[in-house]
Design brief:
By secondary structure, the protein is an alpha/beta fold. It is built from 6 helices and 4 strands. It has a 4-stranded parallel β-sheet with strand order 2-1-3-4. 10% of the residues are buried.
């Protein structure tokens, strides 16, 4: 059984001028709500990205970070990392690393080759 309430069409279409003003006031209120949430989201503190590199050159990653001019920290401790990046072949073979990452909810990203281009693309993807 479906229950419904009949729509009152008389009050909606009596005066087209009042209908337009109610729509514009609704749009204005949504604009202000969205504006306030944008301002609030800009003031939120963003966590710095902390990367643990596995089987990748530490200096190569530093060079990519310097070229991209991004504020990222590199760590040599898995426990402090927010992201693990490394070569796919080596990441697949290290079950202990996968287990630690799973326990601490740390995402693992792999690349095929240790090149500046692939590391830069991966970091840009992570930063989105």
């Amino acid at each position: 059984m479906i229950r419904y309430r009949p729509l009152q069409t008389q009050t909606l279409f009596k005066n087209s001028h009042t209908a337009n003003t109610s729509i514009s006031s609704t749009q204005q209120s949504w604009v202000t709500v969205n504006y306030e949430t944008d301002i609030h989201s800009n003031h939120l503190k963003q966590k710095k990205l902390v990367i643990y590199s596995y089987c990748l050159s530490y200096n190569l990653i530093k060079e990519v970070i310097a070229k991209l001019e991004i504020d990222i920290l590199l760590t040599k401790e898995i426990k402090k990392a927010s992201v693990i990046i490394g070569l796919k072949k080596h990441l697949q073979q290290n079950r202990k690393l996968q287990k630690i990452a799973k326990q601490r909810n740390i995402p693992i990203y792999g690349i095929n080759r240790s090149s500046i281009y692939q590391i830069a693309k991966l970091i840009q993807f992570i930063m989105l």
